[in-house]
Amino acid sequence: MMAGSVVPLGRAPQLRAFRPSISRNTSHCSEGGPSHPYHPQLRRIINLKYVSFVGPSSSVSSCLHHRFKPIPALDSEAEGVHPEYPIHHDQKVEVRKSKSFEQWDSLTAKFAGASNIPFLVLQLPQILLNARNLLAGNKNALLAVPWLGMFTGLLGNLSLLSYFAKKRETEAVVVQTLGVISIYVVISQLAMAEAMPLPHFIITSIVVASGLVLNFMNYFDLLSAGIWRFWEDFITVAGLSVLPQVMWSTFVPYIPDSILPGAVAFIIAVVGVVLARIGKLSEKGMKFFGAISGWTATFLFMWMPVAQTWTNFLNPDNIKGLSAFSMLLAMIGNGLMIPRALFIRDFMWFTGSTWASVFYGWGNLIYMYCLKSISKEFFLAATAGLYIWIGFALWRDTKVHGYGSPLTCIKELIFGL
């Protein structure tokens, strides 16, 4: 989480850090053969080559990994299909018996799980500072935290929570839930300080409570498909409406202050939802629409370093308000996500994690180094650590998949080839 380390952007709302969540892809076995973990009915549609049970795996599942052809980038959220298990009629199951493959599977999940530590360290100081100011009666201090930016981050977290809950990614659901709760705590503090209008806080509380309940009910298969579709439509429309408005607001007052971008996006989103639900979209259109909510949340978080860079450009003195330690934690937290996103070939997750780690964390460190806010040794150590880590992730992924070049992994990640 980067919210506590961002310099206010004037009239542009601040975005929370990108927290693409961790996931652990495991398949579920039955005695008769493998079945898709979340859609058993697909067994009647697709002919899969059954494999026999040979022993426990290194993680939650007690069966072998069944690795399908990696999915194309846009299909990161194909309707109800897990990223590591895309469904193609002409595919056969390739059994991964390599111990190193399963070990790397387990390690990448642990790396991503460890990202909770830097993210929590980033968020707690803001919560504690707000609490101290409230207890001291210094409500004005909380006006420096823009509630609209916090709400935008909350919407992004809820979208990603739905993205991973839909795919039954246990660890991802836990991490995104922590993100939703932590930012809601900050919003509650803002409401107590009257820095956020009470009606807006009430609506936000209803959205948060509804989102958490619906996501967990869907995770445990306690929710009807119709209600879940309604929730997906809601977060899709909300995300598409907020994204262009936030992008526009970043450059105010150099461009006119207007709600037109958000209003136009809202109309387009509603039309898209209606067309999708009445079956007027093509197969490619449905695939694109199904991926839009996850990508919208990712772009919301990705816009944060762009807005921060713009602010730094306009007001170089603001760099003094940035904490080098916070930027380092942001870089580490997102960097720990990269190996897992690469391993499961989730292009959306990989894009967001890499962007936030390189352009937000490391990018701000570059700016701080140029303005001599940090030492040369600190900057070089952070730079070496980041790119050695990315290189290690690429090398290890190439090795466990048995490829001769990391470019093959990148090609699979992007194009699903």
Question: Which features characterize this protein?
Answer:
single chain, 417 residues, mainly alpha, two-stranded antiparallel ribbon, two-stranded antiparallel sheet, 13 helices, 4 strands, disordered N terminus
What does this structure look like?
- This protein has helices at residues 99-114, 116-135, 147-165, 170-192, 198-219, 225-250, 260-277, 283-314, 324-335, 338-343, 347-370, 376-400, 406-415; strands at residues 28-30, 33-35, 65-67, 94-96.
- By secondary structure, it is mostly helical.
- It has two domains: 3-23 and 109-305 and 313-415, no CATH class; 28-94, no CATH class.
- β1 (28-30) and β2 (33-35) form a beta hairpin.
- The model is unreliable at 1-95 (pLDDT under 50).
In round numbers, the mean pLDDT is: 76
Our count of domains comes out at: 2
Overall geometry comes to globular
Tell me about the largest β-sheet.
2 strands, antiparallel
Give the total of beta strands: 4
Helix fraction, binned, reads 55-70%
β content, as a range? under 5%
Low-confidence stretches: 1-95
List SSEs in N-to-C order: EEEEHHHHHHHHHHHHH
Widest sheet, order of strands: 1-2
Offer a concise description of the structure:
The chain has 417 residues and is mainly α. The protein is built from 13 helices and 4 strands. Helices cover 61% and strands 3% of the residues.
